Automatic annotation (TrEMBL):
Residues 9-100 form the Roadblock/LAMTOR2 domain. Keywords: Membrane, Transmembrane, Transmembrane helix. This is Roadblock/LC7 domain-containing protein. The chain crosses the membrane at residues 83-104. The keyword RNA-binding does not apply. The keyword Membrane applies. It comes from the Bacteria. InterPro entries: Mycobact_SerProt_Inhib_Rv3364c (IPR053141), Roadblock/LAMTOR2_dom (IPR004942). It comes from Streptomyces luteolifulvus.
């Protein structure tokens, strides 16, 4: 388990080093629990992870209204004054979230996030939980 965590740290750092402007990267489970992070403080990463659980649920509900959609959220990008927020599906019940400043170019960011998900998607899968217990 410690080796796997070290691999996450290295891979998240690689993403941060490859795209200028990244402030924080969070890997989270579908129920909003932080799995790993790079940058930012742990409390902020926990808040981002919790918010992402609601956002991915909302995006999935909207996706169901698109006739050609399978109802699953692939990526959400939110632009705010001062930066961007990216949320990407990254395996069964897992997501990759990135907060960046305005320097980060959205096309480059989404491509680099997608590359990371392809490389490590199986490692980002989290088992479903009920009442805090793994099923």
């Amino acid at each position: 388990m410690i080796q796997q965590r070290a691999n996450f740290d290295w891979m998240l750092k690689d993403l941060a080093d490859g795209v200028p402007g990244i402030e924080m990267i969070v890997v989270l489970s579908a129920d909003g629990l932080r799995i790993a992070r790079h940058g930012g403080d742990p409390d902020a990463a926990d808040r981002v992870a919790a918010a992402c659980a609601g956002l991915q649920s909302l995006a999935g509900a909207v996706a169901q209204e698109i006739p050609a959609s399978d109802g699953r959220m692939r990526m959400v990008i939110i632009e705010v004054n001062g930066g961007y927020f990216y949320l990407m599906a990254a395996g069964a019940n897992a997501y990759l979230a990135v907060l960046s400043d305005v320097v980060a170019e959205p096309g480059m960011m989404s491509n680099r996030m997608r590359d990371l998900v392809v490389r490590i998607g199986a490692h980002l899968t989290t088992p479903p939980r009920r009442n805090g217990q793994t099923l």
